[in-house]
Design brief:
With 206 residues, the chain is mostly helical. Helix content is 71%, strand content 5%. Strand 1 and strand 2 form a beta hairpin.
């Protein structure tokens, strides 16, 4: 059996990111700029930015999150829909989640030549929230909290925190991209299996 999509994504992302750390020209060509996407028609940037990261810690955090929750989600989708459909669904969540994560930053910064963002955080957020919707009772762990948090509790808290930080501003982090990716992950699971949404609500209100 070949490599999983998660492992392939991680390998490609790590190789491209490490190269970009030492190649400012490559970093500049791949970084997400709503201004350049609109005014220079460089639409490829809505995808290329997910392959580069600001630094090693940014890269490591995203890839670790993708490995743990992405592996779970990929295996769950393959088990439920078969290999071909399951792998396709996972690829769609990650790739389209990364694209969807650029929508809010684009609407807010399409005429701002100084806005730049990079990283797979939006795509990873899509995977995380798809996994949360798929298995709302699983425990999630944060590096600084040794106790597991049920996914159906973690999800709303995370989104509320991202929204608060987005509104406060000046964090240097594209919180709106995280929110956009998360919303896509939720929506995708509801489209392919509406019962997962019912299960999630039952955990909160049941």
């Amino acid at each position: 059996m070949g490599l999983s999509i998660v492992i392939v994504i991680i390998i490609i992302t790590v190789l491209v990111s490490l190269n970009a750390f030492n190649n400012s020209s490559l970093m500049d060509r791949m970084i997400y700029s709503p201004y350049l996407a609109k005014h220079e028609k460089e639409h490829y940037r809505v995808l290329s930015h997910i392959l580069i990261h600001a630094d090693a810690s940014h890269l490591m955090f995203n890839m670790m999150s993708l490995y743990f929750l992405g592996t779970f989600l990929e295996e769950s989708l393959v088990f439920s829909y078969g290999f071909a459909r399951g792998e396709l669904f996972f690829a769609m969540i990650y790739i389209l989640g990364g694209v969807f994560a650029t929508v809010l930053p684009y609407l807010r910064n399409q005429d701002n030549p100084n806005y730049r963002s990079r990283g797979a955080s939006g795509a990873v957020s899509a995977v995380i929230f798809a996994a949360i919707m798929w298995a709302p009772t699983m425990d999630l762990y944060l590096f600084f909290i040794p106790v597991g948090i049920p996914a159906y509790i973690f999800g709303p808290i995370y989104l509320a925190l991202e929204y608060f930080l987005h509104k406060r501003g000046n964090t240097g982090i594209a919180h709106d991209a995280h929110i956009g990716g998360a919303l896509f992950g939720i929506l995708f699971i509801l489209i392919i299996n509406i019962d997962k949404g019912k299960e999630f609500l039952n955990q909160i209100f049941g």
